Amino acid sequence: MTMDLSDITDFLHAAAASVGAEITSPWFYLQLGLILASAGLAFAAGAAARARIDLGTLGTAWPTPLRLFMQALAGSASTAVFAALMTIGHTVMLASTSPGRSYLLGIAANLAFAWLIIRLVTSVIRNSFIVRLVSLSAWLVAALSILGQLGPVIDALDSVSIVLGGLRLTPLLLIKLAVLLAVALWLSNVASNFAESRITQSGDLTPSIQVLLVKMIRLALMIFSGAAGVGIGFGLQKIVANFISGIILLADKSVKPGDLVTIGDSSGRISAMKTRYISVAAGDGREFLIPNEDLVTQKVTNWTYSDTNTLVKINFGTSYEADPRLVCKMALDIAAATPRAIKSKPPNCILVEFTDAGMKFALTFWLADPDGMDNVKSEVMQSLWETFKREGIHVPYPVREIRVRGGALPVETNAEVQG
């Protein structure tokens, strides 16, 4: 992927214009003030919780996983309070104003909840370095997904490559390989510790045999996990990518069963979400199985993500003999009489363009549900045709003239006929 200087300049200008438009809006500063105030309250609440709770002695008699989980929960009190305050603020602003004026609060709430969930999940890991590494890496992926930049970052990491012996090496592939190898080695360490505990408890084996068996098991597991990690990294990338993408989709809730989506040329309702793919049922009996990775890396239209109301647009034309105001009135009456049209949102019809063939119009109206939208459009267009035919309004169509050049057609004269 290459970019010349003009592309970079256009990108920087567009980014600067977008940032300038945001920071000049009073709603931006209102959201920023709410975020800072919530952060202060959350910090104070976390400090008060830490002063009252001794994390070192919390849950001493409890099982180790539960004790670590509760200690992580108490230690993340500030994050939990901040996430709760952001969610409340976002909900209140959504109810009182347009969604575009509270997006910063929604992003802050999602980032806080992602960090809280990651910290609680990694609380069962005892190694503090691994906890920090896993937490920061997982939160970075979640943050990019929340901000809608995960796809571009993945494309950028996959755009630079080195081909060695027919194998295409990219930064994305190396990162996947490192993660999978680390997970495989960690699992092998857990398995070897379990095997060691079982072997040392056996009274039928001498200490030397126990040590020998433990070393052999550890070596075998390390070799197997390393080979498996490399094999997965190079040969089973798509399977692992689809599995991880499925986890991301479940976490950010961008799609869910029952949503009406359009992915490329495939449209329908999501009937099931599996670990490797989602099932999209079309209205004609077909069912598309779409890999989870495609939903993370490609453009997806979710017709029912936050609102099921759908705007329907119909373009049509008439000849210049028609009265444009009368045409718009007829179209509005037809759209308003459509049974599925939302009555609280009146339809709209505008004259779009004067062309060589006639006048172009655009009719828009709202449906409460996108299901069967094409059928509704067909019914409205048929009603328009019937009304235009009844009122004598013509729909323009192309007219072609054939002209003969380079000679005249033969004409018979009276003399030639008599002869």
In short:
With 419 residues, this protein is of the alpha+beta class. It has helices at residues 5-23, 26-52, 64-75, 77-96, 103-121, 128-146, 150-159, 171-200, 207-235, 237-252, 292-297, 324-336, 373-391, 414-418; strands at 162-164, 167-169, 260-263, 266-273, 277-281, 287-291, 300-302, 310-318, 348-354, 359-367.
Determine Rg (CA atoms, Å): 33 Å
Shape: elongated
Specify the structural class.
alpha+beta
What is the mean pLDDT? 77
What does this protein structure show overall?
18% of the residues are buried. The protein starts with a helix and ends with a helix. The chain has 419 residues and is an alpha+beta fold. Strands 6-5-4-3-7 form a five-stranded antiparallel β-sheet. The chain has a three-stranded antiparallel β-sheet with strand order 8-10-9, covered by helices on one side. Strands 1-2 form a two-stranded antiparallel sheet. Helix 4 packs antiparallel against helix 5 (103-121), helix 5 (103-121) packs antiparallel against helix 6 (128-146) and helix 12 (324-336) packs across helix 13. Strand 4 (266-273) and strand 5 form a beta hairpin. It contains 14 helices and ten strands.
Write the layout of secondary structure elements.
Blueprint: H1 5-23, H2 26-52, H3 64-75, H4 77-96, H5 103-121, H6 128-146, H7 150-159, E1 162-164, E2 167-169, H8 171-200, H9 207-235, H10 237-252, E3 260-263, E4 266-273, E5 277-281, E6 287-291, H11 292-297, E7 300-302, E8 310-318, H12 324-336, E9 348-354, E10 359-367, H13 373-391, H14 414-418
Antiparallel strand pairs: 1-2, 3-4, 3-7, 4-5, 5-6, 8-10, 9-10
